[in-house]
Amino acid sequence: MFQGAIIRKALSGEVTAVYDLICLLKDKTMPLGAFERIYIKNLADPMISYFVAEVDGRIIGFISLHIQHLLHHSAPIAEVQELVIDESFRNLKIGVQLLNAVEKVSRNFQCELIEVSSNNKRIHAHRFYEKNGFVNTHMKLMMPLGESI
């Protein structure tokens, strides 16, 4: 019987496992060198938190949280940038465990709220977020500046 995952801060040596999960999330292969540079840089940023979900020594989930100070909010806000679970471990409450980890960080920073953006095609993800307390209040628009989108 599945007992849940170990949720902990991500480590620099786990870049390949995290990279594989992000490629799964984005459904594309990205340049590993550029990814690794950003990953290592962000690990050192106190306003960015990376957590992994581990099962039997294997990284099977990842979440990133960015704390921001925006002029149009009266307190810091937190934003989940990425949340992904290996397909064979979905629907086991691991995403909820990861959300709980970033909620704790957000509360420690006295954030006003946690935001998340999700691609329009990810209907299951939208239901997951709404089931876990997120409310659809905004529309996000993007202006592509290159072929990376």
What does this structure look like?
It is a single chain. This protein has 149 residues and is α+β, with helices and mostly antiparallel strands. The protein has a single domain, classed as Gcn5-related N-acetyltransferase (GNAT) (Aminopeptidase), CATH 3.40.630.30. Helix content is 32%, strand content 23%. It contains four helices and five strands. It has helices at residues 15-26, 32-43, 94-108, 123-131; strands at residues 6-9, 48-55, 58-68, 77-85, 114-116. A five-stranded mixed β-sheet has the order 1-2-3-4-5. The longest helix is centred in the last third of the chain and has 15 residues, at 94-108. The model has no long low-confidence stretch (mean pLDDT 94).
